[in-house]
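Here we describe the complex-level prediction in full. Unlike the single-chain runs in Section 2.1, the two entities below were treated as one system.
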Amino acid sequence: MTDSKRYVRPYGDTTGDGMIQTSFTLPIPFGPKADGAAQQLANKMGMDPAMVVHSHPIGDDFTFFVVYGSVKHLVDLDEVKVVEREYPLLSPAEVNTTLKKVLRRKLVVVGGCIGTDAHTVGIDAILNIKGFAGEKGLEYYRELKVVNLGAQVSVPELVRRARTEKADAVLISQVVTQRDAHILNTQEMSAAFREAMGDRRPLLVAGGPRFDPLMAGELGVDRVFSRGTTPGEVASYLVHAMQEKKGVAA
Amino acid sequence: MALLDLDPKVVATARELAARAAEPVVSIAKAHTTVAVERATLRLAGITGADSTHRAGDVPWVNRVIDTVREQCGLEHGVVLPAFHALRENNFGTLTELAEATAAGQIQFKIPTGKDLTAARKAATSAVAKGIKTIDRNRAQRDKLIHKLGDPAQRPWIYLIVATGDIDEDVVQAQNAARAGADVIAVIRSTGQSLLDYVPEGATHHGFAGTYATQENFRIMRAALDDVSKEVGRYVRLTNYASGLCMPEIAVLAGLQRLDMMLNDSMYGILFRDINPIRTFVDQRFSRQVHARAGIIINTGEDNYLTTADAVDAAHTVTVSQLLNEHFAHEAGLPDHLLGLGHAFEINPKVPDSFRLELAHALLARELFPDAPLKWMPPTKHMTGDVFNGYLLDGFFNLAGVLTGQSILLVGMMTEAVVTPFLSDRDLALQNVRYVLNAAGSLAEDFRPAPDGLIVKRAHQVLGEAVDLLERIVDDGLLNAIADGTFGLMKRPADQGKGADGVITKAEAYFNPASEMLEAAQ
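The structure predicted for the assembly as a whole is:
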C-alpha cells in the first residue's frame, strides 16, 4: 500500500463510485410517503443519488429502511489523526526477558473495573490467563504479577491496593458509558492517584470499547486502549513504558 | 426421544455426586441466617416504605429495623421475635410505625421470654402468613390468567430484554416487544444493583444500563404486561433478577407482585460479583423456597461461565453447574418444571465444527434435564460489532435452539457489544427467530445424529468430564473448589467477598415463621 493517495471516497464495486449502505428507522407509518422521507434524509446526508432499496413497517408508527447510494464527500487522509502504536509488539517470551533485564523483579499490575461498572469482560480478557483473540492474558506472563480486583472497585480501594501491592501499573476497564460514566470514573481515578502519590504514581492505563486512544490527556492517564486490544499489545506497551521510565533505550 | 444414548448409570452417578458435593453447603445454609433473609421475612410480614429523611438518602424501613435489632440484641434469634415483641409492647398497628419509632431512637429491642415470647411468635406468624397468602393468591391469579389467555403457541418461548433505565420507557418497549411476538419480558437491572445491600424504593427513572428492581417498578411492569396480554391474547411473562446481596428480599417482592421468572443462580454472585460464598448459599436457599411457593421459574446463569472461559474447554463446567443448580433447587422445593437451567451458544465460530459442538452441548442439557424449561442464551462473546456477521450467528443460534428442543430462547441482538438495541434491531432479531421457527420449527422430528458421529461422541465426552470434575469437587469440598478457581477461573475463598458481615449463625432458639411455612409446604 502506498501512501501517495491523499483523497479517497467509499468503494462499492468501482473506484471512485462513493457507494455506501445504511439503515435507519423513522417514526412514521409505512407507505410511499415514508419512502420519500427516507430518500430526503439520505439526500441530506450527502447520498446522491440515494436508493431506498427496502422498507418495512415496525408496528403502526415506525418504518425501517435500507438505503444504498453514492456520497459526494471526499476523505482527506492528511487530516486523519490517530494514535499509531508507539512501541514494538513483543512475544510473551520477549516480554519476560526484557522485564527481567530492565526491572530485575516482577512487574506488578493491578487491574479492575471502577465505579458501578460490573462488566469484567474487558479487564478479564486482558488479565485472565484465558486471554483474548487467541492470546493468553497477562497472568500467563512469568515476569508479571497480576492482581485482578474484579468488578465495582471503588477508587480509594484501588489506590490502597495499588499502594500495598507496590503496583508498577494500574489497568482499569470501563464498559458502561451511560451519561459518560466511563470518562468521569477514569478522571476521578487519575486525579486520586495524582493526589495520593504525585509523581510516584504507577503507570495508569484505561481500556474500554468506547474510549478513544486520543483521550489519554483528557482522562489524565498514560495510555488508553480501545476496542479489540489484545493482552499482547498491553504487555508490549507496559514493557515499552517501563523502559522509558528507566531511561533504557528500546 | 433420546438421541444421545446416554448411559443412565453415568447420569445417576453425576446426580449423586452433585448431591454429595452440595450436602455440606446445604447444612451450612441451614445453620445460618443473613441480614437479607431477615429483611425478606419482615417484608413478608408487611413492612414497606423508606426513611426519606436519612442523610444517606432513602433507606428502606426494613434496613433501619434490622440494623437496629442487630445492634441491640443480635439477629441470632431472628428478627421477628424482637420486632413483634416491640410492636406489641408499644401498641403499634404496623411495622412501618415501629420502623419510624426505631429511626427516632425510641425503641429498645430485646429477645422476649415466657408469655411475651409466645405472644410475639403468634403475632409474627400471623403477619408472615398474610404475606405468604398474597403470594399464594398471585400464583392462583397467574394460573387463572394463563387458563383464560393461554400460553405461547410455540416452544421455545421468545424471551426479550428491555433496559432503558427508566421504568416508564421500559413499559413502552416491553408492550411493543410483546406485540411483536415476545412471550417473556426481562427488565435488566441497573449496573451495580447486585452489590447494594438494600432494595431501592419506588418508581425509578435513572438506572445505568438497566432499571432498578423495586417493588413499585415490578408492580408497574406487571400491570402493563397484564394489559398487553389481553391485547395479544396470551399471557406475557415478566422476568427480573434475584441475584446479588438482596436475593431473598427481591424473591419476596417478585412473589408479592406476581413476577413469573427470576434469574437465580446458586453460584453466580460468588463467582462474578465476588459476594461471600456463605452469604450466597444461605440467601439462595431462602429465595428459592420463596420462588417455589410463588410458582416462579428460576433462570440459572451457566451462560456466564462460557463468557469468561472457553466454551469448548469449559463445556463440562456448565453441566456440573446445572447439576448443582438442580440439586440446590430441588432441595429448596422447586420442581423440575420451574427449573430454567441455563446454557449458551458461545463457541468461537472460527472453531471447526463449532455448530455441531453447540448441538452436542445443547442436546446434552436437553436429555439430562428432560422436564426442565431450559433457557438458551445467545452469542455475546464472539459478537464483534460486525452486525452482519452477528445476525448470521444469531440465526444459527436460533436453529440450534429449535433443533435441540430448548424451552426458553433469549433473543440474540446483532448489536450485542455495540449499543443497546435500536427498535429496528429488536424487530430484525424477532424476524430472524420467526423465520427459523417457521422454516425449521419441526426439524427436530427429522434430526437423528449418527450414533457414532461427532455430536453423540462429544456429548458423552462432556458428560464424562463433568463426572470427573464432580468427583474432584466431592473430594475437595465445594467451597474449596470455588476458592481454587474451578468455575469460570475465579478464585473465591469462603471467608472473603462482599456481604460476609451479613451472615449470622443461628441460635438454638432461632425463629422464622417464613422458613417454617416454606419448609412445611415442601
